[in-house]
Structures are given as C-alpha cells and as structure tokens.
User: Fold this.
Amino acid sequence: IEYLVNDASIKRPEDGIPTFDELLVKRRHLLKHRPHTQNVAFEKNIQDIENNPFPTPSGKIEIFSKRLYEMKNSEIPALSHYVPAIEGPEDTLTDKFPLQLITWKGRNRANSTQFANPWLQEVQRQELWINPLDAEDRNIKQGDKVKVYNDRGITLVPVKLTQRIMPGVVALQAGAWWQPDKQGIDQGGCANVLTSSRSTAMAHGNAHQTLLVEVAKA
Assistant:
C-alpha cells in the first residue's frame, strides 16, 4: 500500500496525492475529477466526425458491416443478432452428448506448466466439476472416477460434486498433461482429447469452449 500511494503521488502530480507518510497524518484526500456524468462517449467523433472519423470503412459507427457481409459466414452476421453456438445447448448433438464442457485456468499452474509438480498437485487436483443433479441422474458419487467422452475422445478423471456449477454444464481445469493407457485412453483429465480442431470465424483461434460431452461412472 505504501508503494502504491507513493507511486501515485509521483506519477499524478495534477491530483496532489499526498505521500504515504502524509496520508497517515491527513487520513483522507479528495480527488477532484470531472464528474463521470458529464463525459460523453465518442464526444470528439460526434462533434466533428470529419476530423475524427471512426476506424471503419465508412468512418462512422456501423450497425451493418459490409466487410462481414462479403465474408458470408453465418457465425459472424453482418447485422448483429443471436447466433446459436456450434456444440452449444441448442445443438442437436445434445441428444447424444447433453453436457456442455468448459475449461478454466487453475491456481496451481500456468496452463500445462508444472502439471507434474507434486507440491502443486496438492494445491488443486485435476477433477471434473459436475452439479449434484447431473451426478444423481448418472448414479455418480463424490470422488468417483468418471469417463468424460464424445466422438473425439475419452478422458478418465475423479469427479467433484458442487453446486458452484450449473446443471447441464461440467468443467475441467485446462492444461492437464495427456496420459494415455495401452488403449490410448487418457487417464489424466486432459480436456484436449475432447476438443475439436474448429477455429473461430474472425480471429481463427481455438474454439475449445464450445463442446459437448457425456459423463458416466468409469
């Protein structure tokens, strides 16, 4: 806190921020900024669009995008509207694989780095989060080893029953190392064996957060 206050005092002289020692005596400091309610978004553009155009082909705010229209990609329509996700909750594939799988970044490693470190594995083990309602439908109990699968692959992992995830959704921490057995079935809870190679329409990035799976007791 001392470092932050003193750093602000040096870098923002226009605000007259006291040093940490001064603040210990003064106890408070009033920042006199322009009220947020008086700020107008894109004020310069609106007042003088000729000299302050937007970075679009027309130089204006575009509700309809000619560039997107010419791409003719149904995932990114030229006029904004709701687009159902591929392998999302409305996909017909839910008849076969009814659970939406998402991944998250854990607190014990950076992606896959240090996955095998036993001390960091003590911090947070690799496990599948599932809502108790979905677990009950599948006769799954806390701590059971489960099979998470779709048409692309299978991974085996312990399960964690928790109401912190909504029904219809399951989750795995990202970055688990692939640990195949003799049959090629992953034993380490690696979400990558379940993801598709589909890329996103505009950025051509990994579309790994939209995939459907089923879960069963191993």
Observations:
- The first strand starts at residue 99 and ends at 104.
